[in-house]
Known about the structure:
The protein is α/β, with parallel strands linked by helices and 441 residues long. The chain is built from 17 helices and 14 strands. The strands form 3 sheets. It has a 6-stranded mixed β-sheet, sandwiched between helices. It has a 5-stranded parallel β-sheet with strand order 6-5-4-7-8, sandwiched between helices. Strands 2-3-14 form a 3-stranded antiparallel β-sheet. Helix 7 (164-173) links the parallel strand 5 (150-155) and strand 6. Helix 2 runs antiparallel to helix 3, helix 2 packs across helix 9 and helix 16 packs antiparallel against helix 17 (413-427). The longest helix has 24 residues, at 74-97. The termini are far apart. Its EC number is 1.1.1.23.
Amino acid sequence: MPRTYLKKAPGAAKAANGGSPADIPAIVQGVIDAIRAEGDAAVRLYSEKFDKWSPESFRLSDAEIQHAISQVPAQTVADIKEVQANVRAFAVAQRESIKDFEIETAPGVFLGQRNNPINYIGAYIPGGRYPLLASAHMTILTAKVAGVKKVVACTPPAAGKIPNATVAAMHLAGADEIFILGGVQAVAAMAVGTPTVPKVDFIAGPGNAFVAEAKRQLFGEIGIDLFAGPTEVLIVADETADPFMVATDLLSQAEHGPDSPAVLITTSEEIGKRTIELCAELLEGLVTAPVASVSWRDFGEVVLAGGLDEAYAIADEYAYEHVQVLTAQPREALEKMQNFGALFLGPMTCVSYGDKCIGTNHVLPTLGASRYTGGLWVGKYLRTVTYQEVRNTEQSGKLGQLCGRAARVELFEGHARSGDLRAHMYLKDEFDWIKPGAVQQ
């Protein structure tokens, strides 16, 4: 769909492919290969190299965890607990919406479905530029609500020290083991297993380009939540929107990283132009402006739409992670839009609530992935499996006849014979390949 830009991002093409340096895959592959071959020795080597971190044990003891929590302000601990209560309430509702069932499709033919939790998962909680406590709630707590038996959680050190608040969030969320270990070395250690880091079946959690690439390369050997790219925000606004709010909310997400796209699609040229002016003004007093200003300069866009239907259609083309709707009737977006990681409806809601405290999960699809998947939720930690049982001889025989015909069309003679055997046993059908007396009934 043609677009009229009030501000066009010069870095938009780069954002589409993630903007990652070409050598990241090779570096990540080298780390993974070394950890496969050398185990803990390679983990320690890369932790020293990348994080300047080499404690006697990367795994925190119970005493170390309790000491870390004791160093966290009481208000912060209380806030962690309140946020986790919100996340837990929503995750529990999600889990209760997923039902096991059994149906009888014909007399004596029973088909069923069970939702079994993954046994062992790894949670990666980023550090680096920002200590993302909320990722502990989203990955660990949600897994525990799903019924995961064991959660191994890793987070990098903070400037050579244990990140106490993050550890508190990880522990209170239910992590069974906590490692102060970051980057590719953490993801690889959990994926392949070492003498000290347990092997897991699935890894969840956001991270930088190296962490994302490690998850990509290890996918298949383990499960992962999502292929993650830079944080994205898109706001749909009409003439009723407050441009100061629009600018504030765009920049709130631009601070995630210098390649985080922030897009406004508006039906009002006045709102669009004023938002551009206000972003420039607000950046002057924003502590995170060194990051947010680069993101806004290189990846920020303002698009003018001919009407709300066109605005929603353009937004669906972007298929962004976060979509905020600042219009007179924001709930219209629930019917008008399909491609998004999460919707934030109305001026009393904002993307930051989803990131930090409201209770929905903030691990969401980026780089257009919302066209085919949603974000992290309880269901990601469940394996939906089926079972079948036939208790009626006549029905087993009839299924055998059907199976024989269907399989021979596909030239699967062995499959056909499994069906023939039941038709012979229960309906007395005769087959040349079944000799008299061959079957003990």
